């Protein structure tokens, strides 16, 4: 302990001496929490200035008097399992992301839900990399969880993410190429300024409008600059 502190001349920073750590019951710091001093931890009661679930002074929230807009509180973003918004997607709440099964209406059009307009086709997303095996090129196709597929065995509609310089090998495989919907596949222009999130920029520059009416067996190609981008984009997309 410093001599000054021993003599009782503490270096007070609000309620706490910044030399010896002694505290006093004055000048507490209630800015972060109206009811708990952020310097010494002293507590007090009934000091928040509640506006619904949120204190207007320290921004603390409480689980009372939420301002519900459907399933979500507009003040604190807490969600509840009521009044979800299924208007954009019958099976996924637009506001909170909650999902449910079997709610689309395919009775009028087997390919498109008559309520929300969603396509009934379950796309799979695969990143494809050509690999040389002896004298032949084989394609390694992976989904977002790194599960491998043989492209020739796939019967579903598939979005293929492939690097630009690998496309030629894909084109050479007639049986695969004839299944491609967008044979005029062009690389969407990658912005010159990639900003501070290059992968996100590349992602948004990739063809983002995969058709909703892909047929069974059909492929839709999205070009990336590098395989790594393709893989990233594929992960990104299928998570959306
Ligand atoms: Zn002191
Ligand atoms: Zn204090
Ligand atoms: Zn408060
Ligand atoms: Zn709230
Ligand atoms: Zn919801
Ligand atoms: Zn629907």
Describe the protein in words:
The chain has 240 residues and is of the alpha+beta class. The protein has five helices and eleven strands. The protein has helices spanning 3-6, 167-172, 174-177, 198-205, 227-239, and strands at residues 12-13, 16-17, 50-51, 54-55, 68-69, 72-73, 124-133, 136-142, 148-149, 158-163, 219-224. The strands form four sheets. The chain has a five-stranded mixed β-sheet with strand order 9-8-7-10-11. Strands 1-2 form a two-stranded antiparallel ribbon. It has a two-stranded antiparallel ribbon with strand order 3-4. A hairpin with a 2-residue loop joins strand 5 and strand 6. The termini are far apart. The model has no long low-confidence stretch (mean pLDDT 88). The structure holds zinc ion (6 copies). Residues 15, 28, 37, 39-40, 42 line the site of one zinc ion.
Features:
single chain, 240 residues, alpha+beta, 5-stranded mixed sheet, two-stranded antiparallel sheet, 5 helices, 15% helix
What is the percentage of strand-forming residues?
15-25%
Major sheet = 5 strands, mixed
Measured as a percent range, the helix fraction is 10-25%
Low confidence ranges: none
SSE string, helices as H and strands as E: HEEEEEEEEEEHHHEH
Structural class: alpha+beta
**Strands ordered across the widest β-sheet:** 9-8-7-10-11
Bound molecules: zinc ion
Mean pLDDT: 88
């Amino acid at each position: 302990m410093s001599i000054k502190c021993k003599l009782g001349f503490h270096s007070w920073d609000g309620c706490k001496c910044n030399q010896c750590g002694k505290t006093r019951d004055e000048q507490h710091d209630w800015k972060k929490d109206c009811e708990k001093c952020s310097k010494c931890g002293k507590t007090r009661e009934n000091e928040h200035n509640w506006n619904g679930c949120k204190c207007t002074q320290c921004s603390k929230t409480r689980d009372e008097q939420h301002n519900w807009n459907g399933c979500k509180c507009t003040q604190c973003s807490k969600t509840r399992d009521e009044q979800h918004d299924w208007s954009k997607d019958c099976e996924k709440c637009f506001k909170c992301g909650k999902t449910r099964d079997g709610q689309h209406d395919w009775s009028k059009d087997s390919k498109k839900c008559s309520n929300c307009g969603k396509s009934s086709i379950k796309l799979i997303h695969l990143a494809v990399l050509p690999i040389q095996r002896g004298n032949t090129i084989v394609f390694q196709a992976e989904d977002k969880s790194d599960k491998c597929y043989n492209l020739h065995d796939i019967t579903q509609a598939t979005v293929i993410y492939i690097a630009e310089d690998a496309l030629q090998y894909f084109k050479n495989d007639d049986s695969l190429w004839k299944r491609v919907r967008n044979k005029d596949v062009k690389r969407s222009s990658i912005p010159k300024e990639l900003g501070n999130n290059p992968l996100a920029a590349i992602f948004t520059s990739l063809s983002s409008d995969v058709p909703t009416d892909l047929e069974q067996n059909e492929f839709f190609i999205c070009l990336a600059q590098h395989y790594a981008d393709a893989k990233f984009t594929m992960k990104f997309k299928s998570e959306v």
